[in-house]
């Protein structure tokens, strides 16, 4: 395909735009939303204090969709600070403090961080360990003049009380064979110097909070879903024989970048059908670096499977569709696609508060059996949470509640082709919102989409 001026311009744009810069372009820090999250965290604590350290990526090759800023997400969730603003920073929360309920330690200008976050008590990071050392001292040992001259430490010491509970942001994903992250030294020192300290995992509280999204988060989830659907549609218009899976993925990724987003995981375009690469090819590579894109040439008669998701301002989508390379389904492809599309819609329609992932899986399986497809190979569990991670934190063994966001995901595989779905669903007070519901899904809709001429077809 001959390069057009438009394609050259797009390529140059990709070359000079980094995902991190694109993600942050138009989303200023929402001070009120982060203040409300801190208030909920304080309310959920059982006394003591919480220490949430700003942490960069601690370990590699732990988890398939573990992203560079996973370890920083809890700090971002509570403060909105990231990048340089989060270097050498720590947030301390104390629900029983009289004055110092929220304290931010920063390596940046304290006054600037106070203005940016709305946190009243902001101090240089070099005072963090000094203040914490004084606070761990038993309140009963602080003499009158110390209580007067060290008001912050006194307030924290009083809050800690005799039980001395300290909530700390440990990693969620572990590699016990790796060198322990530097930040764990803080928790170890607390135990070493003061054996009565009870260090608890802050994720027990944060997982619950992050699982139920507030309005600010929901708007970002909607935006990430909109961008993801847009990327699917724009790339599907361009699909034709002799393209490669990598070229299709590049259109998806450019659309993300153009909309100030980034891939929330490596964009995956796979093939099923005649002369398709063997399923699982390349899967002996280490997690996180395996070649998921091929590249493989696509040809008429094959089906392309999308597994894509945009990350916008740290909130993600995860989306899947299957389309015929030729733009037209074969009779058998259409027959199966119509059945499983109906089942996907019925499964989504049943989402509402009080139901569970187990209910959803059972419904999908029952509908498949009733349609005479009970023996057709189906892969995946029905769902996973989405939020600040593409596979986000949350509890899978409790009924759904308003504010939860997850996917309905599954794939049907037959000898010559496979069809997959993945849609982002938000649980609402009276049902659900299908965040990716504006994407084509019916076979007629997919064919109509692929018949359109996209901006990428100038050289065809």
Describe the structure.
This protein is an alpha+beta fold and 460 residues long. It folds into two domains: 20-210, Creatinase/prolidase N-terminal domain (Creatine Amidinohydrolase, Chain A, domain 1, 3-Layer(aba) Sandwich), CATH 3.40.350; 213-450, Creatinase/methionine aminopeptidase superfamily (Creatine Amidinohydrolase). It is built from 15 helices and 16 strands. It has helices spanning 5-16, 19-23, 31-44, 73-79, 110-117, 128-136, 144-149, 151-160, 184-193, 203-211, 215-238, 245-258, 331-349, 357-370, 443-450; strands at 49-53, 90-93, 102-106, 121-124, 165-168, 198-201, 262-263, 268-272, 303-308, 310-312, 315-316, 319-324, 377-379, 405-413, 418-428, 431-434. The strands form four sheets. The chain has a six-stranded mixed β-sheet with strand order 4-3-2-1-5-6, with helices on both faces. A four-stranded antiparallel β-sheet has the order 13-14-15-16, with helices on one face. Strand 2 and strand 3 (102-106) form a beta hairpin. Helix 6 crosses helix 8 (151-160) and helix 13 (331-349) packs antiparallel against helix 14. The longest helix has 24 residues, at 215-238. The protein is elongated. The chain starts with a helix and ends in a 10-residue tail after the last helix. Mean pLDDT is 86; it is low at 1-25 and 282-291.
């Amino acid at each position: 395909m001959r390069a057009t001026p438009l394609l050259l311009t797009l390529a140059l744009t990709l070359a000079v735009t980094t995902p991190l810069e694109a993600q942050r372009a138009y989303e200023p820090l929402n001070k009120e939303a982060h203040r409300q999250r801190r208030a909920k965290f304080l309310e959920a604590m059982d006394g003591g204090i919480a220490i949430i350290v700003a942490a960069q990526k601690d370990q590699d090759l732990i988890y398939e969709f573990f992203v560079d800023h996973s370890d920083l997400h809890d700090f971002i969730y509570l403060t909105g600070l990231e990048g340089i603003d989060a270097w050498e920073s720590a947030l301390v929360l104390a629900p029983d403090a009289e004055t110092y309920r929220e304290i931010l330690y920063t390596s940046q200008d304290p006054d600037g961080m106070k203005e940016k976050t709305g946190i009243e008590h902001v101090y240089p990071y070099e005072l963090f360990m000094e203040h914490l050392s004084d606070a761990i001292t038993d309140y009963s040992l602080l003499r009158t003049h110390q209580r007067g001259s060290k008001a912050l430490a006194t307030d924290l010491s009083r809050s800690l009380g005799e039980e001395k509970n300290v909530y700390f942001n440990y990693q969620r994903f572990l590699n016990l064979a790796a060198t322990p992250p530097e930040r764990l030294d803080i928790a170890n020192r607390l135990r070493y110097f003061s054996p009565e300290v009870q260090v608890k995992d802050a994720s027990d509280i944060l997982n619950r909070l992050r699982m139920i999204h507030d309005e600010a988060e929901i708007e970002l989830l909607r935006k990430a879903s909109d961008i993801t659907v847009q990327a699917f549609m724009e790339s599907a218009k361009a699909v034709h024989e002799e393209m490669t899976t990598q070229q299709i993925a590049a259109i998806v990724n450019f659309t993300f970048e153009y909309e100030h987003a980034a891939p929330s995981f490596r964009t995956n375009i796979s093939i099923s059908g005649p002369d398709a690469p063997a399923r699982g090819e390349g899967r002996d590579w280490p997690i996180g670096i395996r070649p998921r894109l091929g590249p493989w040439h696509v040809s008429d008669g094959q089906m392309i499977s999308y597994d894509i998701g945009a990350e916008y301002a740290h909130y993600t989508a995860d989306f899947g569709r299957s389309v015929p390379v030729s733009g037209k389904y074969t009779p058998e492809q259409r027959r199966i696609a119509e059945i499983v599309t109906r089942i996907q819609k019925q499964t989504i329609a049943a989402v509402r508060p009080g139901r569970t992932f187990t209910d959803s899986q059972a419904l999908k399986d029952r509908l498949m059996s009733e349609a005479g497809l009970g023996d057709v190979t189906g892969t995946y569990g029905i769902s996973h949470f989405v939020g600040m991670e593409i596979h986000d934190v949350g509890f899978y063994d409790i009924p759904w509640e308003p504010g939860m966001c997850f996917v309905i995901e599954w794939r049907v595989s037959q000898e010559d082709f496979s069809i997959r779905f993945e849609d982002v669903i938000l649980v609402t007070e009276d049902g659900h919102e299908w965040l990716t519901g504006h994407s084509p899904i019916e076979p007629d809709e997919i064919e109509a989409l692929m018949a359109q001429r996209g901006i990428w077809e100038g050289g065809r």
